[in-house]
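This follows on from our talk about sequence and fold. Go ahead and set the record down below:
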Amino acid sequence: PRVTLMMPVKQVSSSSLVCSAYDFYPKQIKVSWLRDGKVMTTDAVSIEELANGDWYYQIHSHLEYTPKSGEKISCMVEHGSFNKPMIIDWDPSISESDWDKISIGASGLVLGIITAAAGLMYYKKKSAD
């Protein structure tokens, strides 16, 4: 299976994570959430299991929790195709899509400043004639 851990774009709450596993067979799979290496049992977790229609399956586990400073949140996936459980740690740094948005915004700002400066120079030259 391919496993991802992300914060959804449209979050149910400010502290919501989704751990997803894709393209696995057989269907038996276990997804658990870890806080500092220990299985979390008290926070709200919902699970969606879906068939891909091509004999493979996907699963999405949603975690709602109250973050605490310095804690490490991880998703653990256990499947028969793995020799040992796969553990993905949550990295709260800026995601690639957020970097893309920042880059596009900064490029637009620079282009706007250049266009405004060129327009101002043209206006001053025209009014001087």
